[in-house]
């Protein structure tokens, strides 16, 4: 339900532009405010959850999402929605950064099965979100906001009733094995001193620029290409396209990524998928005039994105000796900030240089991500080209940060 909320508003971006008399650049700031606050808050979520507990952190996060999603649905201007999406992002950071630890702690089938369930939920949520957003958005642009609030309210009640009120085991320092009762307020920023984590976080920053260029900007060239062809491409059609994209992402993140990383190793998979995604973005840059080219390429890029998401997370967990909660929060914080930049600049770039230009900039960002990954290779000796031992071992690496 949480990840459905990310893509739920994607199909209604053009509708918001029309209904509230906003430019595409202004409307895409809905993603920027949301992702920037999510990323910034990620640096502090470990500190919060170590003091108030996992369950309370989850509930506070969900409550904030319900509140600000409702307020966004009641808004009368795009500026108000942008502000409420920032509050939504704070709730999202508290929830997502804590959810995996909660699932691992609550699961009876072991951490490996818990992580597989988490990845499956992420992929299905990213797939179904745009589809539901398209259905609700075809009725009113306000529909997806209230839909998100309803979904997260169900999640709030479920956690309130079903999740035990326990803080769980204290996080442990991987280097010493000693328990750590409280995470420092600045632990997330200090983690960037670790060269391996810094390399991977910067790689993800530029990669996520491309990711959210595709997600936040693509509805506009799709709508424009359809208009030139004399057909209508509204919220329902956009929802179907991004349902296909999310479904492709879900399948490869859960089923394909473990096989590839086990056979080839993490770093070769990262370089290969980044190269394929770069090629896909280049096709989008030159194919903005065709609905068929845009639709097909967006969905195919979802295949590469699914593998990249899983492989990058595994690499972060394997490459650093930092506590898992600190490493994952810091990594997520940096990558979400990278995603926040893309929607903020895509509209202006398109107005100045043409519809394909944002995808061209995304190609450059992906090339930079590969250069960063290559330059920091000496800090990733722990992963190198060594294949993972098993699919279960990979899942445990994500869940526990300890292989």
TrEMBL record:
One GO cellular-component annotation of the UniProt record comes to:
plasma membrane
Q: How does it sit in the membrane?
A: Multi-pass membrane protein
Q: Does the keyword rRNA processing apply?
A: no
This protein's UniProt keywords: Membrane, Transmembrane, Transmembrane helix
- GO MF annotations, alphabetized: transmembrane transporter activity
Localization (cell): Cell membrane
Q: Which residues form the Major facilitator superfamily (MFS) profile domain?
A: 1-380
Q: Which InterPro entries match?
A: MFS (IPR011701), MFS_dom (IPR020846), MFS_trans_sf (IPR036259), Tet-R_TetA/multi-R_MdtG-like (IPR001958), YfmO-like (IPR053200)
The main place the protein resides is: membrane
Q: Which PROSITE patterns match?
A: MFS
Q: Does the keyword Transmembrane apply?
A: yes
Superkingdom of this entry's organism? Answer: Bacteria
Span-the-membrane segments of this chain are 28-47, 59-82, 88-108, 115-139, 145-163, 200-220, 240-261, 268-286, 292-312, 333-350, 356-376
Return the protein name.
Answer: Multidrug-efflux transporter, putative
Instruction: Give the source species.
Output: Mycetocola reblochoni REB411
């Amino acid at each position: 339900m949480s990840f459905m909320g990310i893509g739920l508003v994607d199909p209604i971006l053009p509708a918001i532009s029309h209904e509230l008399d906003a430019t595409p650049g202004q409307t895409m700031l809905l993603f920027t405010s949301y992702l920037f606050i999510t990323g910034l808050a990620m640096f502090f979520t470990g500190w919060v959850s170590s003091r108030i507990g996992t369950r309370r952190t989850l509930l506070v996060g969900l409550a904030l999402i319900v509140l600000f999603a409702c307020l966004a649905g009641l808004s009368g201007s795009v500026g108000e929605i942008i502000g409420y999406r920032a509050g939504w992002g704070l709730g999202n950071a508290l929830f997502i950064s804590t959810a995996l630890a909660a699932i691992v702690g609550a699961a009876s089938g072991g951490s490996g099965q818990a992580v597989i369930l988490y990845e499956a939920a992420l992929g299905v949520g990213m797939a179904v979100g745009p589809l539901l957003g398209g259905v609700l958005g075809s009725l009113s642009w306000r529909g997806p906001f209230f839909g998100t609030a309803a979904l997260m309210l169900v999640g709030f009640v479920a956690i309130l009733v079903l999740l035990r009120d326990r803080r769980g085991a204290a996080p442990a320092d991987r280097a010493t094995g000693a328990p750590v009762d409280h995470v420092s307020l600045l632990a997330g920023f200090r983690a960037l001193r670790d060269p391996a984590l810094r390399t991977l976080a910067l790689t993800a920053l530029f990669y996520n620029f491309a990711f959210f260029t595709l997600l936040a900007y693509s509805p506009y060239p799709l709508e424009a290409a359809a208009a030139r062809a004399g057909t209508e491409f509204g919220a329902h059609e956009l929802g179907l396209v991004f349902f296909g994209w999310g479904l492709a992402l879900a399948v490869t993140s859960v089923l394909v990524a473990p096989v590839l990383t086990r056979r080839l190793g993490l770093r070769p998979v990262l370089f290969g998928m980044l190269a394929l995604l770069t090629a896909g973005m280049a096709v989008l840059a030159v194919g903005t005039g065709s609905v068929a080219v845009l639709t097909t390429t967006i969905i195919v890029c979802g295949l590469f994105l699914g593998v990249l998401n899983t492989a990058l997370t595994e690499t972060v967990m394997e490459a650093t000796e930092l506590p898992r909660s600190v490493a994952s929060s810091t990594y997520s914080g940096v990558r979400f900030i990278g995603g926040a930049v893309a929607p903020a600049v895509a509209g202006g770039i398109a107005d100045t240089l043409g519809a394909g230009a944002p995808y061209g900039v995304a190609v450059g960002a992906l090339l930079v991500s590969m250069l960063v990954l290559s330059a920091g290779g000496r800090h990733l000796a722990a992963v190198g080209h060594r294949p993972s031992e098993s699919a279960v071992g990979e899942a445990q690496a994500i869940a526990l940060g300890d292989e």
